């Protein structure tokens, strides 16, 4: 992509919130009994890009920052609900099409974008109101990071969680490497961030990164737990707790059949989120704000310690692995969106540099001997 035409350059200033892929609304606050409370509200912020699994574009990041600032300052707001449109995804991270087609190969531009991303995470951590992540679907990559920045998370139990960095040319240093060790411990954080293996909502709840989970699959008019995972506390052959362990074999086939038979209904998710908002409503507001501020400190301290170094590294990485990884994800077939890792490692081991044809050689669909 040529960068000579000034009109094609991204504007990294914050505009007024309008038509940016982020929706906001105030919903009248309610008591635990469901009674409306005139004059008080909960602020809902929606990522509105369902066609791309609510991945955030540059304009959407700006919109989230402004929406959070507005909700934080609003005198009538009890708490903030941060969610996504639809039932497929809360957020799958940065928009890989934009990354691949605009930012890849242009670290100076991505550095400006990362200033906005950092401000979005900081806006969550600095909000004067408790922030609840309503996990309506997948929470992956950067979506997992902005979700973990929130104070509470309530998920529908079909949702999937995890990181994607090292599989797609990045490192999960937009919050995951800061928040996960605090939330789940160093060992589980290492496995989640390096291996990039997705896990279920039941596993996420067991790990301690969710406040609550509720069923979303409705079969024959009744809600049932995610049929693709074991939802009972059980121990495997090694004596390990297998709460939320994925089903296999015949049980998996039966679960998939139930999934096809059922429909997704987020009514219980909304009820659980509203119930949490109502509980917060019945607390002293300043005492709640102070409590939230204190409990954010471990995450906030790690985030502030690392975010600028992370920004610089992620920008420079757009010249090498990120450029290759995002191009592969954006252009590869649905089931082939990763580079040829073995060829890449062999070429690097042989001393080949990125300045040659490395990028093109490792893309999906190439035939290698």
Describe this structure in words.
By secondary structure, this protein is of the alpha/beta class. It folds into 2 domains: 10-216 and 265-325, 2-enoyl-CoA Hydratase, Chain A, domain 1 (Alpha-Beta Complex), CATH 3.90.226.10; 339-369, no CATH class. Helices cover 44% and strands 17% of the residues. It contains 13 helices and 13 strands. The strands form 3 sheets. It has a 6-stranded mixed β-sheet, with helices on both faces. α1 (58-73) links the parallel β2 and β3. α1 (58-73) runs parallel beside α3 and α3 (107-126) runs antiparallel to α10 (285-317). The longest helix is centred in the C-terminal third of the chain and has 33 residues, at 285-317. It is globular, with a radius of gyration of 21 Å. The two termini are 31 Å apart. Mean pLDDT is 91; it is low at 234-242.
């Amino acid at each position: 992509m040529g960068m000579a035409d000034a009109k094609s350059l991204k504007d990294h200033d914050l505009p007024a919130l309008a038509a940016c892929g982020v929706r906001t609304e105030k919903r009248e606050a309610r008591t635990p009994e469901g009674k409306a409370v005139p004059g008080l509200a909960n602020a809902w912020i929606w990522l509105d890009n369902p066609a791309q699994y609510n991945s955030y574009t540059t304009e959407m990041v700006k919109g989230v920052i402004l929406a959070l600032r507005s909700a934080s300052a609003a005198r009538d707001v009890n708490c903030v609900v941060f969610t996504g449109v639809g039932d497929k995804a809360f957020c799958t991270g940065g928009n890989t099409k934009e990354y691949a087609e605009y930012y890849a190969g242009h670290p100076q531009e991505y550095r400006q974008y990362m200033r906005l991303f950092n401000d979005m995470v900081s806006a969550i951590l600095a909000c004067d109101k408790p922030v609840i992540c309503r996990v309506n679907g997948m929470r992956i990559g950067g979506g997992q990071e902005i979700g973990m920045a929130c104070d509470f998370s309530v998920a529908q139990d079909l949702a999937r969680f995890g990181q994607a960095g090292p599989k797609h040319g990045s490192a999960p240093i937009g919050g995951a490497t800061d928040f996960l060790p605090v939330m789940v411990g160093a060992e589980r954080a290492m496995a989640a961030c390096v291996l990039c293996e997705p896990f279920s909502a039941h596993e996420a709840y067991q790990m301690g990164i969710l406040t609550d989970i509720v069923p979303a699959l409705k079969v024959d008019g009744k809600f049932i737990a995610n049929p693709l995972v074991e939802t009972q506390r059980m121990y495997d052959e090694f004596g390990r707790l297998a709460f939320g362990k994925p089903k296999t074999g015949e049980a998996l086939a039966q679960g998939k059949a139930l999934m096809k038979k059922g429909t997704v209904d987020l009514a219980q998710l909304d009820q659980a989120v509203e119930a949490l908002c109502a509980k917060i409503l019945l607390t002293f507001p300043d005492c709640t704000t102070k409590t939230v501020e204190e409990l954010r400190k471990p995450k906030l301290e790690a985030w502030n310690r690392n975010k600028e170094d992370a920004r610089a590294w992620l920008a420079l990485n757009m010249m090498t692995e990120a450029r290759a990884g995002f191009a592969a994800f954006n252009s590869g077939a649905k089931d082939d969106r990763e580079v040829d890792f073995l060829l890449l490692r062999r070429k690097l081991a042989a001393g080949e540099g990125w300045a040659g044809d490395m990028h093109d050689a490792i893309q999906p669909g190439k035939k290698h001997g």
